[in-house]
Amino acid sequence: MQRYLSLLLFLISVLGGGLLIGYVTLPGAWYASLAKPPFNPPNWVFGPAWTLLYALIAIAGWRTWLHEPTGAAMKIWGVQLFLNFLWSPTFFGARMVGLAFVVIVLLLASIVLFIASVWNRDRTSGWLFVPYAAWVAFATLLNASLLWLN
Length: 150
Known about the structure:
By secondary structure, the protein is mainly α.
C-alpha cells in the first residue's frame, strides 16, 4: 500500500507542478504575436501532450526512487524536472527566448542522461522517458525556430 501512496505523491507532485506552472505562465498575446514556423502545432496539443508526459515522468521517477532513492539516476531525474519547470517561466514569463533555448538544450541532455543511467537496471523507466525525449527534441527545434524567426 505504501508503494502506491508514494506513486500517488509522485503523480500529484509532477502533474500538479506542471499544471500549476502551465497555468501561471499561459502563452497569451505575446506568444500569439510571434512569427512561428510552419510545423508549429496548434495550441490545444500542448495541454494533453504535457499531461501524458508528466504522468510518464512521475512514474519513471517513482520507479527510480523505489530502486535507488539517493542514487545518481534520482538526482538526474530531479535536475530534469527542475529544468522542465524552469522552461515555461523563462520562455513565457520572462519572454527570454534565447535563455529558454539554453534551458531546453540542458533539459534534453538531462533526459538522455537519465535514460542512459537507468537503461541497464530499469529499462521500463528508460522507455517511459523516450516519448518525453522525442517531445523535448521537437520542442527544442521549435524553440530554436522561434528564436531565429523573432
